[in-house]
Amino acid sequence: MQPTITPQSSYSPADFKSDQAVRWCPGCGDHAILNTLHKAMATLGIAPEMTAVISGIGCSSRLPYYMNTYGFHTIHGRAAAIATGFKVANPQMTVWQISGDGDGLAIGGNHFIHAVRRNIDINMVLFNNKIYGLTKGQYSPTSARGFVSKSSPYGTTEDPFIPAELVFGARGNFFARSIDVELATSQEVFVAAARHKGASVVEVLQNCVIFNNGIHNPITDKEVRADRTIHLRHGEKMIFGKNGDKGLVQDGFLIKAVTIGQDGYTLDDVLVHDAHTPSNFLHQQLAMMDGNTLPLAVGVIRDVEAPTYDAAVEAQVAEVRAKKGFDSLRSLILAGETWEVK
Description:
The chain is of the alpha/beta class. 30% of the residues lie in helices and 18% in strands. It is built from 11 helices and 11 strands. The protein has helices spanning 30-44, 79-89, 101-107, 109-118, 163-169, 183-195, 217-220, 222-228, 281-288, 309-324, 329-333, and strands spanning 51-55, 70-73, 94-100, 123-128, 174-179, 200-205, 229-232, 239-240, 246-251, 254-259, 296-303. The protein has an 8-stranded mixed sheet with strand order 2-1-3-4-6-5-11-7, with helices on both faces. Strands 8-9-10 form a 3-stranded antiparallel sheet. Helix 1 (30-44) crosses helix 6 (183-195) and helix 3 (101-107) packs across helix 4. The longest helix is centred in the C-terminal third of the chain and has 16 residues, at 309-324. The radius of gyration is 22 Å and the shape is globular.
């Protein structure tokens, strides 16, 4: 049986904090993400003992130490695989998987896309700082072409992965995005991710103050953020800008940004966000906006119901047990031909 996820007042963020000292660099974006995750868990009202946090290797992967829940600090790139096994074996538990862009999309890339494809009911949080921080500043799978780092002193000669593109390529049903300094947005999307039944992916643009400080500044600086980001909410008009006078409209098969009241565009022309439509055509366009020609989308971009892998496995096991009469592993083993060795 799946736990019922309903808001309760019986938990506070402190209930989900461990007694461990947080060992991230001062000013690291991970602190904000941890803080909002504690708040989101309190909002969800799921008991700490019904929650597991599983990570791989990297700065972000220290997060399970700071959670008063079950936790696994696993091996490089394998968080999704271990989270999958844990969820299938314990379908009643709420599972959070924590990975960085290197851990999740490089060595763990294959596990990432298949967890999404299978639609396992785990909440995958991807910390994207576009650098390997724990190993001291090598370029990562999300670093831009030409990026100069310790492992690319003359600039990278490859194009990066875009996490949203991988999610949609793997036929994902939930994708959201936030920014480490947008605490309210992060809490909002974490809660939505947990309430979604199936694989949910939340990309958080996170700042590494030591090895990649300011990498997201062209989008996240207070002076430009309102014009270069758009907060999408289901059922609401796609409006953005410092003055709330810009919007997204249909432009043939694509979308474009306009100023409301100019060039003949009115509020009626602005698109309404539908996060629940099964078609991912518009969702992909929204997720791929990068803050240049079109604003970077934050919030829940796609949230569509679909059968989950873990629920299907649980149902299949129950069906086979009923047909075969197995009530334990021992009865399964002894059901076939057996012999006694003397």
